[in-house]
Amino acid sequence: MMTQETLTRWGRVFGKSGVGKTGRFGAATACLVVLLLCSAVQAGPYSGGAGTEQDPYKISTVADWQAFVNNPGDLDKHFVLTADLDFVWALLTPVAEGGTRFQASAGFNGLFDGGGHFIRRVIIDLGDESSVGLFAYLGPGGRIINLNLEDFQVTGNERVGALVGECNYGVIANCSCKAQVTGANSVGGLVGESVVGQIVNCTSTSYVS
After folding, report:
1. What one-character DSSP code corresponds to residue 60?
2. Fewer CB within 10 Å: C terminus or N terminus of the chain?
3. Which residues contact 34 (CB under 8 A, 6 or more apart)?
4. How does DSSP assign 79-126, residue by residue?
5. Could you list the mean pLDDT of each consecutive 10-residue stretch along the chain, which spans 209 residues?
6. For position 98, what pLDDT does the model report?
7. In whole angstroms, what is the distance from residue 126 CA to residue 157 CA?
8. Which pLDDT score, from 0 to 100, does residue 2 have?
């Protein structure tokens, strides 16, 4: 992203170009800069992609993940993790926190492909809430695949898991977790509660209480 100082300096150069061929060149270059800036603004909150199956949104940084959490309108889109993420024990808000079995449309109903990467050193502390995990609620059509969690500390009330708090008709495949998970009821290392969900080829090495 260009700083204001850079844009101002370029503006002064264009302003001195005068008329004739040099002036036309300066004006054309200025228009190109404006177009590039507009393209950057329209690029979206992630590191690339269009959110489709053929061109999923790319999650490459901690900032990308925060954008994912903060954009509930994208919960039915396709995502791919392109790098390991280390949150260094930051306190995170779950993805699709508003989703429940009575409000499945607010859950994650898209595809999240971890690409075999790791998400590490995360704290989720919602002791009075239910459906608590990295993904609070995985609804019909939702799929999480090829994702590894390591060094997670997750606390909730009911339906608490490191990866997914509550899975209803969703699919979780080729995922793993090493976590410490605490709750009052329906508590698991990987998933707290699964109703007609598919959990395939997953492992959990976790302390559960």
Report:
1. -
2. N
3. none
4. EEE-S-EEEEEEE-PPBTTT-BTTBGGGSB-SEEE-TT-EEEEEEEE-
5. 36 38 47 41 79 97 97 96 98 90 81 98 96 96 97 97 96 98 97 95 97
6. 83
7. 8
8. 39
As given in the structure block, the two tokens for residue 209 are 């209480």
Strand 164-168 and strand 143-145: pairing? unpaired
76 neighbors 113 (Cβ within 8 angstroms):
no
Asked whether 68 and 99 are in contact (CB, 8 A), the reply is: no
Q: Which two structure tokens, joined as six digits, stand for 125? A: 């502390």
List Cβ neighbours of 134 (8 Å cut-off, separation of 6 or more): 92, 94, 95, 119, 122, 124, 149, 152, 154, 162, 163, 164
CA dist., res. 115 & res. 147, Å (int): 7
Q: Which amino acid is at 12?
A: R
32-to-2, 39, 70, 165 alpha-carbon distances in Å: 14, 11, 32, 48
Residues 159 and 130: beta-carbon distance below 8 Å: yes
* Alpha-carbon radius of gyration of the chain: 22
